[in-house]
Amino acid sequence: MTELLGEPGVGVPVLLRWLNDCPDLDLPAYHSEQAAGMDVQAAVVAPLVIPPGGICLVPTGFAVALSPGYELQVRPRSGLAVKHGVTVVNAPGTIDADYRGEVKVGLINLGAAPYTVNRGDRIAQLVLAPVCRAVICVVAALPDSQRQGGGFGHTGV
Fold first, then answer.
1. CATH topology of domain 39-130
2. Tens digits of per-residue pLDDT, 96-109?
């Protein structure tokens, strides 16, 4: 077995402010030592039913401030997606470093049955990621490549 090299990542501060009194909700949290995503809970006041094909915006009850050069990606929880067909509609969603509003999760029910979101349910995961910004350079021609303009499925089955 190959030994992994390097030190575990150094934590990056994420400032979080509760928008309402939410003593019953947990902070976003990693649920295993090497988890990439922090589970986030629903801050709904009453149960929210998402019908098959339905889309809703679920509040989390908090806002964040991120360091410049970072984003929070909002990703689906695999258990919700596989067991119930409930996923993040714009996966991955992005919380930009300059956004200070409530973090909300857009969920879509792709399953065959209605799905109920209750207060405190883990509905998504948040992944902190560095952001590389592009510098667009307009040119008269692009350099050649082996692939050229080959699109979807051009490399075979």
1. Deoxyuridine 5'-Triphosphate Nucleotidohydrolase; Chain A (2.70.40)
2. 999 999 999 999 99
